[in-house]
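>> Question from a student workshop board

For tomorrow's exercise we were told to take the sequence and the ligand below, predict the bound structure, and bring the output to class. My setup keeps failing. Could a helper post the expected result so I can at least see what it should look like? The ligand is 2-acetamido-2-deoxy-beta-D-glucopyranose.
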Amino acid sequence: MSNLILVLLSVVVVQAHGFTSRALLELQHASARSTPSTILLGDLATANANLTSTGSDISSILTGAVSAIADPTPDYHPPGTQDSSSCAADTCCIWHYLTTSLHAAFLVPDDSGGGGGGGETAGCNSLARGAIRLGFHDAATWNISLPTGGADGSIVLNPAEAARLDNRGLEDIIAQTAAWYAQWKGYGVGMADLIQLSAITAVASCPGGGPRIKAFVGRQDSAVLPPEGLIPSPHADAEVNIKLFEAKTFSAADLVALLGAHTVSRQFFVDPTRAGDAQDTTDGVWDTTYYGVTASPVTPPGVFKFSSDVSLAHYPGTNGTWQSFEKSLELWNAAFASAYFRMSLLGVNNLNQLTDCSRALP
Ligand code: HEM
Ligand SMILES: *[C@@H]1O[C@H](CO)[C@@H](O)[C@H](O)[C@H]1NC(C)=O
Ligand SMILES: *[C@@H]1O[C@H](CO)[C@@H](O)[C@H](O)[C@H]1NC(C)=O
Ligand SMILES: *[C@@H]1O[C@H](CO)[C@@H](O)[C@H](O)[C@H]1NC(C)=O
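>> Workshop helper replied:
Here is what the output should look like for this input. Compare the format with yours to find the bug.
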């Protein structure tokens, strides 16, 4: 019952572009702290929406009725070689070849494993880490008051966005993604899709057990520069970042799940004297160690904790969720997949016209 009310309220909030009601957000804030968001996005949010079968599938995932984790044993056989006309006739075929090649690129060990890390690790390489953060930074430039922005490719397509301080550290993955785009755009691959499918492929490539998140293609690209202030600060406290993410339709629990991506992260610019330090003790491995390390009063050598992460680990509204993710990789993976699936579709307004290519990914 309360979920139904939330869904209805949410639809009102999302539809009210430019007229966001604080009261509605506050209400949602109070009741949905520890559960995933069920808010519909884009063209699915219209009250009497006429959904295509894809639109209906995406709705079911966004509302939590269906899992955001793809079938673990996909049975996809590309209908032809990369350059064949039968491949061109199947929307997912080229994505199969593209993500298979990305998957291999994400497993090549780094030469020296970052600044302070002391040699290479067995974890995700720097391209994979970068791809995960890039997917987040492209999509997160959107909130419910903004008609444009989100997962639109602008972080690579617009040099002014790429050059923002928010995006420091993403230079290499932005250059690499531009090169991949040059290589694949002749096959009809778009930048926004490339960025999100790279992030999704990178998560699944990380040793330890990253989930295979459902992947849809057909987003529209845009080079429009989004407003500033939409990317979270590592110095902000829990309340500030929870509100920032709520404006993007995430619950506080979703934010806690998303932050788990810092299980594979390193910092270079928050404290340059400790460039290369990781956010947990199992750098590059997709596990729940990050949650325990961040909540602990102890900071192991080689670990650098963001104060924003520490604040959320101890925040009374989210500390229970934090601990539950620490205890169960399976629980966290399901929550991460659900929240990142939502991330990958922020600002996308043609959800009814997308194509589900989940089964074609490695
Ligand atoms: C409150 C939210 C968040 C804050 C404040 C935050 C902040 C940061 C900062 C400061 C860095 C290090 C940048 C540098 O100095 O090089 C970083 C790295 C990273 N973040 Fe986050 N982040 C947040 C949420 C997320 C989310 C939602 C994701 C993905 C789902 C994510 C994925 C990553 C990854 C993978 C890296 C490592 C990038 C690399 O090693 O190249 N972060 N984050
Ligand atoms: C939904 O689409 C069908 C087929 O295109 C159309 O006949 C029907 O009128 C539409 N309904 C609404 C509410 O738009
Ligand atoms: C959305 O972002 C814009 C630009 O940063 C900001 O002015 C607006 O207050 C934000 N809306 C919400 C609901 O936070
Ligand atoms: C969360 O924090 C509150 C307030 O600090 C504390 O009373 C509670 O025991 C914590 N909950 C968990 C599950 O740790």
